[in-house]
């Protein structure tokens, strides 16, 4: 280097540069030391003392969220570290950042703590100018100076010391990476430097970012692994925040329910506490009552802005306004994602299945290419996830949202869009899925069932919407009844559908009449025969008038009425109606049609109840073969047909074959439905019965205990199905000669049946008849006779003298009088019973033969004692038929049904004193 020359550590710039140790007067030499200009004639910048630009004081009400704060400290500790918190607006990101900033300032006073508002370009630039002023950077006031670059350069200079920068509300990618920059090519004019370039990458500093957008956060932080999603608070944290914010502890009453309603979101909690403080005497429960009152009131409360010293002054403290900023941003960036958010806001907040969203997105996609539509949908989901508006659950393909986010989305829709149109979109989506509740669709129905409740408050603007609404409720009720076996829930849903349909469409509208029939079917299976008959007759009359006698819907209504009559033991009338239905179906649909076979099964049932086992068996074989051919061996309808055949075989005393079939049915049900499913337990009861008839009492007892406990847990102690299980267990205990236990159970069953169904109900009378026989076995003949006569009179009145159960009770009373050696009275009853059996069932029927044999045995006994009767019996040439249980015992069982193909199918289960399964049909037009 030449003598006298100067050595500079920085760059040389300026108009006049003179090398050497001397400067001429007026000359200017601009030397850059460490990247920062020193103007000739001005003093060099003094060393600045570390400071903080955090605009918020520490929050005395802050509730620690240790996991998140520990993550921030860890990620921001390294040289040049960057980290980002993402989450919903109002979830507490900025408050955590404030807490972190003050903790750094307290722990390390020599560290600069810098706060940059980044919601807009203007706010970002304003923050940097403030930092430049605090640093007293030279040239910061020069109009031509790039202040952003000045600050960035200073931060990059490691000699200036350690610093931490919080970039708050960096929500908009466009602010940091303008679209013009992302899409420009070589021919484009020069674009301004993106703001992201002014965020220094220096070993002596770290940057913490808060954002609602995962995409923006990941881009700024350097990747998704540097992102921490901030969820809502947990329950204890939320309660702590609420308590801290309240001015009066007595106002905490009802806090737990309120916090749950607010989804534990900090901004909503703070807002609610401020409102309660303002009202003075208001409590948390009072606020909750207002909040739940109606949508308008809820919207008003969520719009309320109380002001918060620890939130950015330009940001709203209203939950609605805070989130609507995100909604509008999405709407501007990606309209299809905003539409997806809109439809999702109508679902239940939890368990939203991806497959139905994908189907919706595909149906409204503007592209005809399936691949493009799929890709667009995935992009929409990514966008909503990026803004933390939806999250993926542990179950793949299932999403959830905060209920408040959904509500605020709907509020947003009502301000700029036709929200009623979105009601219709959601309703149409649900109607399509619930139009069929066949076995094949059960999995989908299960996923969608929680979302049906969202329709309860929906505004029905026209008849088409009402019809779809009723259809969804009918379909959901059908699924609840068929797949879940929850009759009370199904009944409530049917009643809601009927009430809405009658009010909006009229009582004689076909959909109203069909819904009426659906409700009647569930009432039938709950043993509520009178109301079921009334509804079915009303439904049949209206449908027949509107559509004619041979219309499929009329036939379904006719079939349903027949099944009510069957449940009332009016078998002759039921058989007549079912034969009419079958005749038309065989003619119009063919003998092997699914619906025709359904009616074949119904006819088999009513024949079975009348003791016509051979005819019932023939029809059941036809049904089973048809079902296996059409549906396969493991379909629920096939299993029911198999079960029905097994019970007919049981009635014919072909116990081994019956047991084999029932075990096959039970094995499949336990595997497919679970051991505690209503239908599975019904089959458990059927197996217990066939074991009981074979004298396998120990095995039967074990199964009956399982059945009884399951029914009590599922349905309660008073439900008719529970009483059936109790009765059957008592019969098994009686067979084991455990008379005291058996009598206790039967008495309990009788008391509850009298209370729930009435003293003259056929079910009550059947239990009464069973108690009579137990008293007889214990030698308590007076009580037994009194109760038996009461049961017989009730059955004659309710069912008629020729009804099979009346005849069984009559035969039981005759047997009791026979044992008490009152032969004359016994003979009169035996004679009446035998004559009625012959007229009703024929001379060769097992029950006729059994009655004749008992009568004959009594006559022989009377003759031996010199008390023979004047009447004689005609020898029928048949050997005696051994009774498998004490004379007249009635075994009980719940009834299971199968679906009608052209309808929203539903299996219906009821509570009747029979051993066979019953079918019911429903129709929603």
Automatic annotation (TrEMBL):
InterPro entries: DUF7779 (IPR056681), NLR-like (IPR053137), P-loop_NTPase (IPR027417), TPR-like_helical_dom_sf (IPR011990), TPR_rpt (IPR019734). PANTHER family: AAA+ ATPASE DOMAIN-CONTAINING PROTEIN-RELATED (PTHR46082:SF6), ATP/GTP-BINDING PROTEIN-RELATED (PTHR46082). This is DUF7779 domain-containing protein. Residues 335-413 form the DUF7779 domain. Coiled coil: none annotated. It comes from the Eukaryota. Residues 888-913 are annotated as: Disordered.
